[in-house]
Amino acid sequence: MKLSWYRVSLQTRMPFVISRWGYPGHENVIVSITDDGVTGMGEAAPNRYYRESPESVIAALEVYQPLIEKAQYWSLEAIDLMLTGALAGNASARAAVSSALHDLFARKLSVPLYRMWGLSPECTPLTSFTIAIDDVEGLKRRVADAAEYPVLKIKLGTDRDDEIVRTVREAAPDKTLRVDANAAWTPVEAVERAAMLRDNAVESLEQPVAASDVEGMRFVRERCGMPVIADESCLVSRDIPRLAGSCDAVNIKLAKCGSLREAIRMIHTARAHDMKVMAGCMIETSLGISAIAQLAPLLDAADLDGAALLADDPFTGVTIHGGRVALQDAPGLGVTRRPPA
Q1: What parts of the chain have a pLDDT lower than 70?
Q2: Counting C-beta atoms within 10 Å of the first and last residue's C-beta, which end of the chain has fewer, N or C?
Q3: Which residues contact 62 (CB under 8 A, 6 or more apart)?
Q4: Rg (CA), the chain
Q5: What is the number of structural domains in the chain?
Q6: pTM higher than 0.85, yes or no?
């Protein structure tokens, strides 16, 4: 097999601001793996919160390259273990390789990846559309931009959280609202804000406290009166048992867990601990979204709007109709490159 890659610059249609930072531009890495004329693709969406960058992704791929060249494309589990053993961390780089390998394997079989796993495209959840931090007029524009989506996820973690939630609720009186604090609050602050969230009929609260504060999350869950979802606190399957009792659901992202194999393990581990499962994304193209979306039939909820936020998506793949994830009846991830403009 031959492993290759290139960098791609992405711009969002509006600046994407969360409690930690905000920026309009992102740089991801597109990975290709070719075997006997068949090519699979994957996408690395590095995030500096997890200590990754385009440069670190490429450095990791250079280490993986000779390992992939000696491997068999169908040895998905063995390759997963091999890459994890070769380098610590580098989850988004490994996720890109994993996605490309799964795409390649399913293309060899001429079936969609979800079908190779025995999943039904009829059983996909609604995905939320993210409302990033903005001023009042900007929030209204973002809600209008999300007209197709019945579920909105509001980014919080500012000194204006009450105003943000009220503004979005007034602009979207009939939509389901979820909020994500991105680890910005203390446990006490989260409980204090919960009354306001309940008053505005917010459905769930994602990552209210610092990633390491599992007991703080338990404190919030016991007092906030709504489901709590762990994101930054839950990277891989082995994180889930220690979160039992502290949250109601976990948010799985390929850029955190490092592979589709690990994402599947996370789903089954969460179910074994009586937790619900959602999947999320970074800012990424339809290539990255289409990879994690292959697991959509196994999810309770989704936040797969990363490509929908882009000004120009270089790929086509999974689509969203009426807010629902629509898998493609095409081999592999069902992704193709858009022709140059």
Answers
A1: 20-24, 341
A2: C
A3: none
A4: 19
A5: 2
A6: yes
